[in-house]
Request: fold
Amino acid sequence: MHSIRALLCTLVLALSVHASTAAPLSARLELLPHPERLHPSGDASLPLPQPLLVRVTLTNESPDPIHVLPWGTPLEAPPMAPFLHVSHIASGDAAPYSGPVAKRVHPAPPSLFVVVGGGASLSAVVDVAEMYALREGEHLLSLRCAVTARVGGELHVVPLSSAPLRALVAPAMAR
Reply:
């Protein structure tokens, strides 16, 4: 019964939302520096897992405002879905997503959409180490998600991707 309900919700969403690239959105990832975190006892031999902070920026490339639903994107706080592809360079293995996942009822209320003005950008900082099971070594990160955008009164599903970003995961960051 649960899978039939999920299938019906998916069909309703598919019929009400156009798959399109009508919303001119671009995305960029930027690695941010982070301070070393030590165990609360102050014992340097007990380092806490270190964050891997990445700023994700979505830019509206058009002169007109776009209404974006943050669900399943880095704009959702806290992130509730895997929106990055993270892979270990040496092995080629994908890092498994270990963050929370939310199930939603569609369609989303209009009040949940965020306005991105014409030519404007929205950014969010995420800790990749909190959302993915990372191994020690170099990783490639890239944004891979779809955003629901309201453009001119119509809903569009816009695939988003970014150029890959290299990030080194130190032993204290791996888990």
Notes: The beta strands are 18-19, 25-31, 53-60, 66-69, 84-88, 114-116, 121-127, 137-151, 154-161, 165-169. Residues 95 and 103 are 22 Å apart (CA to CA).
